[in-house]
Design goal:
Blueprint: H1 11-32, H2 45-74, H3 77-99, E1 140-142, E2 150-152, H4 186-189
Antiparallel strand pairs: 1-2
Length: about 200
């Protein structure tokens, strides 16, 4: 009596079992790594899109912070001081255009930021804030009876009257009249910001 030869198993079933065995092995390995993840996550395009968006946001923030730091370091202190004195000179020119005079010695450069109240037609502030120079020294302001006042930085040695003093371009004191058409009052330029006023000496306590 002949025993019939055994038929080969269905190839499709064999493949399925093989895949199931591989999947079980994969799950076992993931369990060993203590980092189980949902099986569908790695095949979901939304997951990779989210990762790309997060990496792009982080990279952009890092690039912007680095770029700003590089720009701050790239500008030498003396160049920054020259830029500041030019801005102060132009602000003084605009102050004089509105009021007819430059600030007095007592009012100083603070008159560019705060309304002296005793000066009619003041329409500032002409600068956002008054800072020291890059070496931590206040900018020097000296009014003159003739011509523009003196405004300068004492430079790295912090001593006035030395060769490293930094002065503005004299032309900056005359800003011209082109800017006047676009000039608006402080209340309109700085909504919600209260313009500080300096009281006259008689009213100060």
């Amino acid at each position: 009596m002949l025993v019939p030869a055994m038929r080969d198993p269905n190839p499709r079933v064999a493949r399925k079992r093989k895949i199931e065995n591989i999947w079980r092995e994969c799950e076992r390995k993931k369990a060993e790594l203590h980092g189980p993840a949902a099986p569908g996550v790695w095949r979901n395009p939304k997951f990779y899109f989210g990762v790309i968006v997060v990496l792009a946001a982080v990279g952009g923030a890092v690039f912007q912070a680095t770029d700003s730091a590089v720009k701050r370091q790239a500008e030498a202190p003396h160049r920054r001081a020259l830029r500041h004195v030019d801005v102060l000179a132009e602000a003084l020119g605009r102050y004089r255009f509105h009021t007819g005079v430059y600030p007095t010695r007592e009012q100083g450069l603070a008159a560019l930021v705060r309304d002296p109240v005793t000066v009619p037609k003041w329409d500032g502030p002409y600068i956002n804030q008054l800072r020291n120079d890059p070496w931590g020294t206040p900018y020097v302001y000296e009014p003159s009876d003739e011509g523009p006042p003196k405004v300068f930085s004492c430079g790295p040695d912090k001593t006035r009257g030395t060769p490293d003093d930094l002065h503005p371009d004299p032309a900056r004191f005359d800003p011209g009249t082109e800017w006047t058409n676009g000039w608006v009052s402080a209340d309109q330029r700085l909504p919600g910001v209260k313009v500080l006023q300096t009281l006259p000496p008689a009213q100060q306590q």
